[in-house]
Design brief:
Structural class of chain A: alpha/beta
Mean pLDDT of chain B: 91
Number of helices of chain B: 1
Helix content of chain B: under 10%
Number of strands of chain B: 31
Oligomer: heterodimer
Shape of chain B: globular
Strand order of the largest sheet of chain A: 2-5-1-6-7-8
Low-confidence stretches of chain A: 1-16, 56-74, 243-247, 353-364
Largest sheet of chain A: 6 strands, parallel
Radius of gyration of chain B: 20 Å
Strand order of the largest sheet of chain B: 14-15-16-17-18-19
Structural class of chain B: mainly beta
Mean pLDDT of chain A: 77
Shape of chain A: globular
Helix content of chain A: 25-40%
Strand content of chain A: 15-25%
Distance between the termini of chain A: 51 Å
Radius of gyration of chain A: 20 Å
Order of helices and strands of chain A: EHEEEHEHHEHHEHEHEHEEEEH
Number of helices of chain A: 10
């Protein structure tokens, strides 16, 4: 049976203000302080009406901006998308709940989703890339991971059988913001080591130290976390290569920071091949890019092999047009990623010149 | 004297009422109109828009279904199923359930199938459960009885459609699909079952043979699909257009869709009207979009798969449409604002030519 209407357009259009409702995903182990943070968001006067989907996505009542779930963990509904990629899964229960929520009255301007301590954040995040109906109305704003400063090291060091992911590492790898909670219970040298460990896994997440989750909610809600400019303003060093790191099967970040204009076609081909072959090991990818012949910065973010991009603010006159991106994943090869990316740069020095797919510089 | 027959043939006039919350469903009963809202509102009016009964259930609503005889209303929510006797407007029963977003009355108005989380329950018309299915792989997303005899029931969930025979408690057939099935439609003759899949395809089966087919290329997930009353065309939403598939003869395999284009925005609701025209050969379809436009489409006998049709009429209400239904004279639209509007069907049709 033939194709229906391939040319229609539903979702994330380019070139218009993004008025989609921001969604914050809150992860963290049981006891890390997620509920404390949730209660602060619900009780503090931050001027936003936040619909909270709590725990197992059981209900959608948003009276008093609170939703309580009752379903047990065994009821998680993770759907494979059958697009040939085993890492492409979505949370069917989340699609269902959000669909019902969006049909209801306009009584909220942000959504916060609390996941269980052991839930894989990937299907939750991927749901916002895969489901067109949700994608047209919602945007993933940030993944926030609450970490118990006293106990997380034990979780990070836990050795799992082959093929079983260490959830604590995974939650840190996925995070855009990490609330380092209970800092009052950890010794200063423990905190230093912990910060170093978190940085080694995820160099791009902002770390917010806190006691009883007392963080500025402006750092949590509506943060546009995929926009690397925000993090670069506070952590300008995060893209520097971590020279002490060895290439192995552990979870690390690879940052790339380079000037030059990108050939969009070459970039698409490279990124497409990279995500298709390494998607399973790539937890997150995000960046701000300078595409040849385009006056606006291009923002993209991905989870495993799925990614989503949109044009952001125009480059300011005189501003250096730098490409900044970060990959977080297992067994990443910095030299290979760097070379692959640089091969997508156009050879010409004129940023407005038409794209030319000539491979440039090899790994340095 | 205003008997039902006279009311039905009288020229309808426009009116508007409000339920103060997004409309979830609208229904035309033999002598009344019923609207349900997403926050639990219920409104019953007569056909002229005079309010008869207004009620508010204390919870938000996921689904609503009126029995074909117009006497029973079932309301599904995330924790309860409510059964209401419409002639007396009394609540007959409230059953605790899990997520209940799918309901289906049998043609005889005696059996009600209801989703209860991952299970399907069948209730009698006073709300007593008499059959419960084994759990499906996910929450039940769609339910429909296969034929008028109400012996077989199709339930959609992740990984396909399961056909049950509640009387014998037997799984008659499982129709496997790779993804999660959302919308569900069964041809009036019970020979075709089609589901909208999460991966923006339609998955269909010929029953009882079970051979399946796929229709792809939709710009987004298809969640609404419905056969016209004669069973020739299956319509489904596809962003700002409707696609219609020809199920006559050997079915849709190898046939293009008939595409209905011209909606200014994303289609949110549509409904088939009774056939009209000489020999009742013209099929009429009404649709509404999220910008508030209502459109009328006419499918003529000469239309073929691969054709493109434009709306016969468009009416801009400026108020996003969330629900739609029609009878011989009236088109009732429910809106996101909570408005319930009645439009004479003639308001969307082009001026009639005098017969010669």
């Amino acid at each position: 049976v033939q194709t229906a209407t391939p040319d229609s357009n539903t979702g994330a259009d380019t070139g218009r203000a993004d008025d989609r409702i921001p969604v914050t995903v809150l992860t963290g182990f049981l006891g890390s302080g997620k509920t404390t943070l949730l209660n602060r968001i619900l009780t503090e006067h931050h001027g936003r009406r936040v619909a909270v989907i709590e725990n197992e996505f059981g209900e959608v009542g948003i009276d008093d901006a609170l939703v309580r779930g009752q379903v047990t963990e065994a009821d998680e509904e993770v759907f494979e998308m059958n697009n040939g990629c085993i890492c492409c899964t979505v949370r069917g229960d989340l699609i269902r709940i959000l669909g019902a929520l969006l049909r209801r009255k306009d009584r909220f301007d942000a959504i916060l989703i609390e996941t269980t301590g052991l839930a894989d954040p990937a299907p939750v995040a991927q749901t916002f890339f895969m489901d067109d109906t949700l994608r047209a109305q919602l945007r993933l704003d940030a993944i926030i991971t609450v970490v118990d400063a006293k106990h997380v090291l034990a979780h990070l060091d836990e050795v799992k059988p082959d093929g079983v992911e260490n959830e604590a590492i995974e939650q840190i790898a996925f995070a855009d913001r990490i609330v380092l909670n209970k800092t009052d219970l950890a010794a200063p040298d423990e905190l230093t080591e912990l910060t170093h460990r978190i940085r080694a896994i995820n160099a791009s997440a902002a770390i917010l130290p806190a006691v009883r989750c007392a963080v500025d909610l402006d750092d949590i809600l509506r943060v546009h976390a995929f926009d690397l400019d925000a993090i670069l303003a506070t952590e300008p060093q995060f893209l520097d290569p971590d020279t002490t790191h060895q290439h192995d099967q552990s979870v690390t970040s690879v940052g790339i920071d380079t000037d030059g204009a990108l050939n969009p076609e070459a970039l698409n081909t490279w990124l497409g091949a990279l995500l298709a072959t390494r998607g399973q090991d790539l937890f997150r990818s995000k960046g701000v890019l300078n595409l040849a012949g385009v006056q606006r910065r291009y923002l993209f973010q991905g989870v495993h092999m799925l990614h989503d991009g949109d044009f952001g603010e125009p480059w300011r006159p005189g501003e250096p047009r730098r490409n900044r991106l970060v990959f977080i994943g297992r067994g990443l090869d910095r030299a290979e990623l760097d070379a692959g990316f640089r091969a997508c740069l156009t050879t010409t020095t004129d940023p407005d010149a038409p794209a030319d797919a000539a491979p440039a510089g090899a790994a340095r | 004297v205003t008997g039902p027959a006279q009311t039905r043939h009288a020229e309808a006039h426009s009116w508007r009422l409000d339920i103060d919350e997004p409309a979830l469903t609208v229904h035309i009963l033999p002598e009344a109109i019923l609207a349900t809202g997403t926050e639990g509102a219920l409104l019953l009016t007569d056909l002229d828009g005079r309010e008869r009964w207004r009620q508010r259930l204390g919870r938000f609503t996921l689904s609503a279904a009126v029995s074909p005889d117009g006497t029973r209303l079932a309301i599904g929510a995330d924790s309860h199923l409510t059964l209401i006797d419409l002639p007396t407007t009394t609540v007959l029963r409230e059953c605790p359930t899990r997520w209940c977003a799918a309901l289906a009355w049998a043609a005889n108005s005696r059996e009600l199938a209801a989703a209860d989380g991952k299970q399907v329950r069948v209730l009698d018309r006073v709300g007593h459960r008499y059959w419960t299915s084994p759990p499906l792989p996910s929450t039940v997303t769609g339910l429909t009885w296969l034929r008028r005899d109400a012996r077989r029931l199709a339930a959609a969930a992740y990984q396909g459609v399961t056909i049950y025979e509640p009387a014998t408690s037997r799984v008659a057939q499982h129709l496997a699909a790779p993804g999660a099935i959302a919308g569900l439609a069964v041809a009036p003759n019970g020979r075709w079952i089609v589901g909208g899949s999460q991966d923006a395809t339609l998955h269909g089966w010929r029953v009882p043979a079970g051979n399946d087919f796929r229709m792809s290329g939709f710009p987004s997930t298809v969640s609404q699909l419905a056969f016209d009353p004669t069973g020739r065309w299956l319509a489904n939403d596809a962003a700002d257009s409707l696609t219609l598939w020809d199920f006559s003869g050997p079915g849709p395999t190898g046939r293009d869709a008939l595409v209905a284009e011209g909606h200014p925005s994303r289609i949110t609701a549509f409904t088939w009207a009774r056939a009209c025209g000489p020999g009742e050969t013209i099929r009429e379809l009404y649709s509404g979009d999220d910008a508030g436009n209502l459109a009328l489409w006419r499918v003529h006998p000469h239309h073929r798969p691969g054709d493109r049709i434009r709306p016969t009429g468009i009416l801009d209400t400026g108020d996003p449409v969330t629900a739609l239904t029609t009878n011989d004279t009236q088109l009732i639209s429910g809106h996101r604002s909570g408005a319930l509007r009645c439009h004479p069907r003639s308001s969307l049709a082009p001026p009639r030519r005098t017969n010669r």
